[in-house]
Amino acid sequence: MTFGDQGMPYGTVDPYAQWVAEQERIRRRRRTRRAVAAGTGVLLVAAITAGAVLYTDGDGQGAATAASSPAVPSVSVTLPSDAPSALPSLLSRPAVRPEQAFPAKSVRLADGSRYERVDLATTSDCAEGMAPELAALIAQGQGCERLTAALFTDAERRSQVTVTVLSFRRVEDASSVFAMASMDPVTYQVVSLDPPPAAGLPTVPPGSAGVFRRVMTVRSVVFANGQWGDGSEADEDAITGQTEDLLRYVNDNVVAYEDPDSV
């Protein structure tokens, strides 16, 4: 499994606000047509991240935001009192497998757009596919069970979007990762797959601009990193749309496995 360098995100928009807006769009779509959706898992993470995440600095003092020091803050997460009663049985299932998260090599979305999956990688050594700060954060809990990543390109073979699923033993650990990655998506990031030689795609130049998105399911955090293969900063709306569409597609697959009663 080969991972490439990750550049800076487009713009300075608050990533958590972007996620909240995206969830509202998903909810509106869910009301008007049948679709696989995040259901109970999304409601659960909303409850957790809204009021049950505590960050502490090196002196052990509580803080409302992540520590400004480069050191990884200590993160404590507790489940809300109204956590679904079915949660223990959902967590007893094995982590989602690659073929469940990424079932098709050729993907056609509801809007007619087409993508090709040009690479697929999975490992139980999750630290190998992420930034050291994210690995250190995960080490504070009970660890990541599996990392699975896929690289997609569009029909024009211009874009490169890596979608990564991190599955955890505990909801609390998934929630702490989601919260920190939402506040600082560059520091707490998974890394993008380099295209294999057989794909015939260029390797994105180091330091190129990129789009970072993420969403939490019942026990997983799904990340999407999108870039143009030539490192271009143009057509931001287009690469953002592709990144969010592929994130939604994989999120739907993961939720359909992790919480089938919600779909």
What does this structure look like?
The protein is of the alpha+beta class. Helix content is 32%, strand content 24%. The protein has 7 helices and 11 strands. It has a 6-stranded antiparallel sheet. A hairpin with a 5-residue loop joins β2 and β3. The protein is globular and about 45 Å long. It starts with a strand and ends in a 5-residue tail after the last helix.
Query: Percentage of helical residues?
Result: 25-40%
What would you call the shape?
globular
User: What string gives the helices and strands in order?
Assistant: EHHEEEHHEEHEEHEEEH
What is the arithmetic mean of pLDDT? 76
Number of helices: 7
Can you tell me the residue ranges where pLDDT is under 50 for at least 5 consecutive residues?
1-70
Largest sheet: 6 strands, antiparallel
Radius of gyration: 17 Å
- The SS-based structural class is alpha+beta
Physical arrangement of strands within the biggest beta sheet: 5-6-7-8-11-10
Summarize the structure.
With 263 residues, the protein is an alpha+beta fold. The protein has helices spanning 15-32, 39-51, 87-91, 98-101, 132-139, 171-183, 236-258; strands at residues 3-4, 53-56, 62-63, 74-77, 106-108, 114-123, 144-154, 159-168, 192-193, 211-216, 220-228.
